[in-house]
């Protein structure tokens, strides 16, 4: 009997002796948590060479293996855990995933592979489970095969943040008709490919912070009428085209911090919109009239207003835009 089997056998005996015990743990090992309809196995810093699935309870619903140097995993490691609903393999050393990894896991809805070393994904790798949430953050991915997910999938939340994407995986995104949240922050995107997001009609939250976007097409979000939150901070945007948010009647939060914006096209900000505008090099003359009026009319709908300051001209540098008189901008109040 190996040490993992011995450990879980001990846990099983303890649980039979103490019927009302909900959680059993051991320093540096795995912890079992029992709830009414859940059995959680949580392993942190265990240094597994291979996942000891046979040592886990057969009715495990949630499995979390974190910081454990796991370098490979196969469908044989997982198929006996057919009740799995959530699988988290955060901060391991996985470089590849077999195409049949999730075979037999027909109840799996949440998969988190954050912080591994994945550079590519096998075709059909996510075909065997009805995933609702997929996290691939902080890997080394620069592209994704369109066939990683089946055409008729149920994915609602996708996290591709902190990877190596220089362009959107358009063919892959076109399969995600049910997607509600898309996270692509901390990549290397320089543009949004025209039409790349039109297949996401249910999208509500879009995270594009800390990329290299210099401009956006006026039609970039026309296929996303349900967008409620958009995060564009930390890019290189110099302007926003007129009408870019015309179809976003549900948009309530817009983060434009730390871009290269000097002014805003009239009509960009709706009166119902909460906006974060600090950290831009605003040019304080008559071209700033629209933003100046919007800030004054929407006192409760801006954040960090003390940091919305003029960058140019020199004699206006550092002045808070909300405190500038209309005459200083050469406009009528």
Question: What does this 3D model show about the protein?
Answer:
This protein has a domain at 29-121: Alpha-Beta Horseshoe (Leucine-rich repeat, LRR (right-handed beta-alpha superhelix)). 11% of the residues lie in helices and 16% in strands. The chain has helices spanning 3-17, 75-78, 170-173, 289-297, 326-329, and strands at 23-24, 30-34, 39-44, 62-66, 86-88, 110-112, 133-135, 157-159, 181-183, 205-207, 229-231, 253-255, 274-276, 282-283, 302-303, 310-312. The protein has a 14-stranded mixed β-sheet with strand order 1-2-3-4-5-6-7-8-9-10-11-12-13-15, with no helix packed on it. Strands 14-16 form a two-stranded parallel ribbon. The longest helix has 15 residues, at 3-17. It is elongated, with a radius of gyration of 25 Å. The chain starts with a helix and ends with a helix. Residues 1-23 form the signal peptide. It comes from Onychostoma macrolepis. Keywords: Leucine-rich repeat, Membrane, Repeat, Signal, Transmembrane, Transmembrane helix. InterPro entries: Leu-rich_rpt (IPR001611), Leu-rich_rpt_typical-subtyp (IPR003591), LRR_dom_sf (IPR032675).
